[in-house]
Amino acid sequence: MAGVIVSDSIEAEIEVDCLIIGGGAAGLTAALAASEAGESVLIAERDTQLSGSTALSSGLVPAAGTKAQAAQSISDSQDAFIGDIMAKNKNSADPDYVRTIVTQIPKTIDWLADSHSIPFHVLDDFLYPSHSHHRMHAVPEVTGQGLITRLEQAVSATDTMIVTGACVTDLFLSPDGDVIGARCERPDGAIEAIAAKRTILACNGYGGNPELVARYIPEMKDALYFGHPGNQGEAILWGEKIGAVPTHLSGYQGHGSVAHPHGILVTWALMMEGGIQVNLEGRRFSNEHLGYSEQAVAVLAQPEQTAFNIFDSRLQQLGRKFEDFRNAEENGAVIVADSPAELAARIGVDGSALEATLRKAATLAESGEPDGFGRQFSADTLLRAPYCAVRVTGALFHTQGGLLVDEHARVKRADGSVFDSLFACGGAACGVSGPDVSGYLSGNGLLTALALGHLAGCCTGWAGA
Ligand SMILES: Cc1cc2nc3c(=O)[nH]c(=O)nc-3n(C[C@H](O)[C@H](O)[C@H](O)COP(=O)(O)OP(=O)(O)OC[C@H]3O[C@@H](n4cnc5c(N)ncnc54)[C@H](O)[C@@H]3O)c2cc1C
Question: Staple partner for 53: which of 121, 173, 227, 317, CB 3.0–4.6 Å?
Answer without folding.
Answer: 227
